[in-house]
């Protein structure tokens, strides 16, 4: 059995005709930028996310960057971000010249620890960017309450958690502005780069619309220094074809994860995902943790099972952020996660037999070295 870390077959093969028809529709429309397809997808995604506004942009990183610009966050301002996120969250803060203030995650959920927020807030703090990492919703009640008390903006990074909920409310609908990504491998993915900002604030939504299109709301009139970061008509059409299937794909990810959790229970030395009360998990990735991470990954590779590490180097230890002077030991929880995390395959279409095989191999690995931990 050869099981890749990610395969699109389960998602894309059954809807090939629908997606190709959507692409042909764009081809024949002879309108390729900011037309009906983008408008229709924005309306459909806003409805899916239960928000008033969705603005399609070029990618998830731009969605974060434009959100910070729309809130006029810049040099001298501080923005709280998780210490263990994908680097895009940090880069967006760097783009606007604001100061990155990392806060450590909880070691059990891997999401921002709301109890550590107060200590990170200063008079210069302007915003918090909670990241619903791996697909699990952050503890939004606590985060929103701290933000409210200190008059801070919240920008959710919802790139990994389309359809997740906190106490029944969808992620991407809590913050003032919320960024998401439709990078192909995300739970809802385009056939290239794509992203969106979601919001319930009409004024801020309007600003994002201007920022994505050269700072213009009226053709050839530019009120602010904007960008070219528009969602393509072609990608919007593909996303509209895929969106109706997202809930079924999410259910499959959750089923696969439930199988893993059942089959991998009670292995000493192996930590399985923990979901906090009220937080739902859409399993963008299924992350296990072990001190034997590299050896386990190697063992699974020899069994033709693909795995990945999300993420091997935390942002503060990347060369790109060397100038901030945060070396080894500065954010120990993020470093511990980088050392011990391993993501198992969890794509829609993965069968019960395949999951059983992966679980069997994982168990075999630990049984072969009973005294290593
Ligand atoms: C993928 C991702 C992004 C960036 O999205 P792109 O579309 O690749 O720019 C941002 N934040 C998180 C947490 C992500 O996983």
From TrEMBL:
<protein>
    <submittedName>
        <fullName>DegT/DnrJ/EryC1/StrS family aminotransferase</fullName>
    </submittedName>
</protein>
<dbReference type="GO" id="GO:0030170">
    <property type="term" value="F:pyridoxal phosphate binding"/>
</dbReference>
<dbReference type="GO" id="GO:0000271">
    <property type="term" value="P:polysaccharide biosynthetic process"/>
</dbReference>
<dbReference type="InterPro" id="IPR015421">
    <property type="entry name" value="PyrdxlP-dep_Trfase_major"/>
</dbReference>
<dbReference type="InterPro" id="IPR015424">
    <property type="entry name" value="PyrdxlP-dep_Trfase"/>
</dbReference>
<feature type="modified residue" description="N6-(pyridoxal phosphate)lysine">
    <location>
        <position position="186"/>
    </location>
</feature>
<comment type="similarity">
    <text>Belongs to the DegT/DnrJ/EryC1 family.</text>
</comment>
<dbReference type="Pfam" id="PF01041">
    <property type="entry name" value="DegT_DnrJ_EryC1"/>
</dbReference>
<keyword id="KW-0663">Pyridoxal phosphate</keyword>
<feature type="active site" description="Proton acceptor">
    <location>
        <position position="186"/>
    </location>
</feature>
<keyword id="KW-0032">Aminotransferase</keyword>
<keyword id="KW-0808">Transferase</keyword>
<dbReference type="InterPro" id="IPR000653">
    <property type="entry name" value="DegT/StrS_aminotransferase"/>
</dbReference>
<dbReference type="InterPro" id="IPR015422">
    <property type="entry name" value="PyrdxlP-dep_Trfase_small"/>
</dbReference>
<dbReference type="GO" id="GO:0008483">
    <property type="term" value="F:transaminase activity"/>
</dbReference>
């Amino acid at each position: 059995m050869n099981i890749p870390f990610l395969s699109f077959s389960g998602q894309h093969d059954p809807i090939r005709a629908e997606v190709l028809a959507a692409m042909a529709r764009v081809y024949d429309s002879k309108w390729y930028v900011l037309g009906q397809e983008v408008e229709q997808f924005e309306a459909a995604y806003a409805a899916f996310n239960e928000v008033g506004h969705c603005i399609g942009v070029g990618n998830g990183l731009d969605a974060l960057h434009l959100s910070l610009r729309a809130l006029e966050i810049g040099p001298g301002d501080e923005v709280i971000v998780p210490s263990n996120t994908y680097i895009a969250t940090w880069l967006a803060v760097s783009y606007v010249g604001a100061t990155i203030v990392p806060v450590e995650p909880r070691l059990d959920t891997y999401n921002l620890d709301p109890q550590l927020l107060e200590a990170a807030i200063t008079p210069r703090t302007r915003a918090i960017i909670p990241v619903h990492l791996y697909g699990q919703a952050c503890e939004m009640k606590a985060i929103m309450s701290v933000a409210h008390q200190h008059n801070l903006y919240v920008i959710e990074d919802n790139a990994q958690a389309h359809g997740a909920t906190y106490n029944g409310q969808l992620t991407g609908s809590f913050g003032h502005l919320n960024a998401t990504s439709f990078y192909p491998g995300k739970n809802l993915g385009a056939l290239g780069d794509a992203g969106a900002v979601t919001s319930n604030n009409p004024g801020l939504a309007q600003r994002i619309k201007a920022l994505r299109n050269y700072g213009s709301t009226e053709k050839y009139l530019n009120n602010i220094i904007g960008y070219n970061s528009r969602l393509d008509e072609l990608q919007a059409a593909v996303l509209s074809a895929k969106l109706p299937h997202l809930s079924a794909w999410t259910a499959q990810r959750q089923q696969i994860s439930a199988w893993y959790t059942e089959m991998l229970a009670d292995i000493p030395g192996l930590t399985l995902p923990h979901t906090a009360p009220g937080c739902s998990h859409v399993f963008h990735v299924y992350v296990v943790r072990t001190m034997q991470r590299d050896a386990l990954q190697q063992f699974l590779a020899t069994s033709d099972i693909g795995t990945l590490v999300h993420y091997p180097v935390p942002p503060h230890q990347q060369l790109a952020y060397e100038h901030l002077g945060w070396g080894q030991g500065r954010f120990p929880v993020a470093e511990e996660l980088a050392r011990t995390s391993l993501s198992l395959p969890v794509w829609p279409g993965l069968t019960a037999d395949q999951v059983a095989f992966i679980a069997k191999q994982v168990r075999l690995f630990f049984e072969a070295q009973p005294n290593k931990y």
